[in-house]
Structures are given as C-alpha cells and as structure tokens.
C-alpha cells in the first residue's frame, strides 16, 4: 500500500516485516521495502557464522552478477571492515559506515577503490540482527557514491522505528527457525519408532502420523482418519477417544488410555498423552496438542529410556527414572543405584509428572503400563 505521495505506507511495511517471520518471500519483500524507505540502491543480507567467521548464505536486491556477489561473499566479506563494525554493534542497532570509516580511510582502501566504488557502492546503513544457532544476520542498505550518506535525520523518526521493527521480526524469525528445526528432528525420530504415533489438536483433527501409524490405520477399520479427524468405528469408542483427547489438551492436561471394542480379533488400545510445549515436536502448532499411541496388547516392543524420551520429551535422566519406576523399583532405591540424591530424584519425578500429564506416581505407572506398544520388564 502506498500513501498519497506514492510512497509505501509505514503500516504496510511494518505488517510485511511480521508476515516475514514465517514466510521467506514476505521477508524478502520486507527487506526490499525497507531498502526503498531508507533511500538505498539495494540491500544485501548475509547469514554470518560467528565461530567460523564466514557467510553461510545471503540474499540481495542488487543489480549485480552472481559471480560478483559470490566473490564478495566468499573472498572479501571476511576482511570487510563494515562486517566487523556491524558485528560489534549490539543486536538490533544500526551502523552508518561513514561515522566509522573516514574519507581518508576510504581513499586508501583497496576494498572500496577496487571493488565497492567501481560497482556503485559507497555508503552502508548496516544492521546486526538475531540469527539462529550461533549466527548473526547482517543487513546492509547501500547507497552509491553520488548519493548523500546515511544520517541520523534520514526519514526520522520513521527510519529508527522501522529499524526496531525489522530487528524484532528478525528475532522472531531466528527463534521460529530454531523451533522448526527442532520439531523436524523430533518428527524424524518418531518415524523410527515401531509404535504408531498420531498427533491431533483438541478437535481430533490429525496433524501428523508416523510411518507405523499409516501402516496400522491402513490395516484395520476400528480406527482411522475420516474427514481429516482421527475417529473410531463404534460411536462409544469414538466418544471415549475424543474425551481423552479433550482431557489431554485442556489447561490442566491429563493423560489416559482406552481399549477399543470394535474388533474382536485384535485388541487395540489407544493411549492419549499431552504434547507439552517442552516437547521437541510441539513447535509447529503453538497450541495444545495430543500425542496418541495406537497398538495391540499382544504385540509390544521393549520399554527403554530412548522410547520414553521421544514419547514424553523427557531428559535422559528423567527417562531412566521413569523406566525404573515402571519396572517396579522404589524412588529411594533408584536414587541409590543411580548415585543421585533422593531430592534430585524427586525433582526429576516432578518434571516427569509435568511432561506426562500425571499428578501422582500411581497415575504415571498406570499410564506407562497402559501404553499398548510398550513391554515392561517387571521384577519377579
């Protein structure tokens, strides 16, 4: 949207910034619009690996050949003083290159005289933005030698306001990319489990099925995906399963299990677990979700810490404790065997309750023993 003068409206630009948190194309448009607002000839955005001191990816709106951009990114950027200046700025703050690099410096600079200026670049308005996993996003708005340098008064106060919004949106993008990567890893792990896993929202709409779930739901009429929702064949089974899903996605979530009655040949049991925010697979939806396991009572896989870690998002120590309790060991005995303080084990147990939706140790044991895919080795 543009105003009466033909200039992009401030509100529209800010809106595009936040649209770009989850949409790469909208983020690119936001940077183009920001460049236009700031009076630049183009932008160049670089993802900078701080540990390796190099660029890992870039995007730009410059009228330059791919070879020229590649030469800068791969050969010149690591020694470019503007990169060092941007990295020294606090995240979210702007750097105007002529405030740091004098005309005398520029006149003697090989980078400026043999590369930047011949290619139409003299002035830089640079931003140090949040990146994900040990990186920074360096955004440069560029001006040519025949243009005035960037000054504090340029489009003030709008430029400073837009800078803050760009920085905030970049911070959200960095956090979202980390969560998406974490979730993708979690989903990949679920695909390697032998048990069937389905993730639904509070309305029973199915958002994810692992490989085993696709196979099981294709082999029985007792339970399946109908109209996008997980449902059971018999109305009584369907109501019971929906009630468990609602309980697992409530403000105070509770886990539970139910045995289906619609198949006399195979004994199907559904266990519904709250998908907590702390779980690696919770990131894509940002809303209460439930994780369901579906399996037969007479076909189980052995319980292990790894399976518990994946199902409930437990830490390795919490998973080991949960397995020990499921196998009949007392908390104090486990603490002694694991060489940890009893209070530490109690703290781990509280974390297990929170992640599983259980409120007492008896609830936890009932839940673990009810999961159809797990075979628990109890003493005796």
Automatic annotation (TrEMBL):
One of its GO terms (molecular function) is DNA binding. It comes from Pandoraea faecigallinarum. SUPFAM superfamilies: C-terminal effector domain of the bipartite response regulators. This is HTH luxR-type domain-containing protein. Residues 311-368 form the HTH luxR-type domain. InterPro entries: PAS (IPR000014), Sig_transdc_resp-reg_C-effctor (IPR016032), Tscrpt_reg_LuxR_C (IPR000792), WH-like_DNA-bd_sf (IPR036388). GO terms for biological process: regulation of DNA-templated transcription. It comes from the Bacteria.
């Amino acid at each position: 949207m543009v105003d009466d003068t033909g200039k992009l409206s401030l509100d529209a630009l800010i809106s595009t910034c936040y649209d770009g948190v989850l949409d790469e194309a909208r983020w690119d448009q936001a940077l183009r619009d920001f460049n236009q607002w700031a009076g630049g000839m183009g932008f160049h955005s670089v993802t900078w690996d701080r540990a390796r001191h190099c660029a890992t990816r870039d995007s730009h709106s410059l009228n330059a050949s791919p070879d020229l951009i590649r030469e800068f990114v791969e050969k010149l950027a690591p020694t470019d003083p503007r990169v060092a200046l941007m990295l020294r700025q606090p995240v979210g703050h702007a750097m105007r290159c002529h405030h740091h690099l004098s005309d005398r410096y520029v006149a003697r600079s090989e980078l400026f005289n043999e590369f930047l200026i011949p290619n139409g670049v003299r002035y830089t308005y640079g931003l140090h933005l949040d990146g994900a996993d040990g990186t920074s996003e360096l955004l440069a708005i560029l001006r040519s030698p025949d243009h005035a340098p960037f000054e504090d008064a340029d489009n003030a106060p709008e430029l400073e306001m837009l800078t803050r919004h760009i920085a905030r949106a970049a911070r959200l993008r960095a956090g979202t990319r980390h969560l998406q990567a974490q979730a993708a890893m979690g989903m990949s792990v679920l695909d390697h489990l032998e048990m069937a896993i389905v993730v639904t929202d509070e309305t029973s709409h199915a958002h994810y099925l692992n490989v085993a779930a696709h196979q099981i739901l294709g082999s029985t009429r007792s339970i399946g995906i109908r109209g996008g929702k997980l449902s059971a064949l018999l109305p009584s089974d369907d109501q019971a399963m929906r009630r468990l899903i609602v309980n697992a996605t409530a403000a105070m979530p509770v886990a539970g299990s139910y045995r289906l009655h619609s198949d006399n040949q195979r004994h199907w049991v559904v266990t519904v677990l709250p998908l907590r925010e702390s779980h690696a697979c919770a990131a894509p939806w940002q809303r209460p979700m439930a994780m369901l396991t579906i399996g037969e009572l007479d076909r189980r896989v052995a319980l292990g810490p790894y399976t518990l870690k994946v199902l409930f998002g437990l830490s390795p120590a919490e998973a080991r404790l949960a397995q020990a309790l499921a196998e009949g060991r007392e908390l104090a005995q486990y603490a002694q065997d694991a060489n940890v303080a009893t209070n530490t084990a109690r703290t781990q147990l509280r974390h297990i309750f929170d992640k599983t939706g259980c409120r007492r140790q008896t609830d936890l044991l009932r839940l673990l023993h009810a999961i159809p895919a797990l075979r628990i080795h109890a003493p005796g």
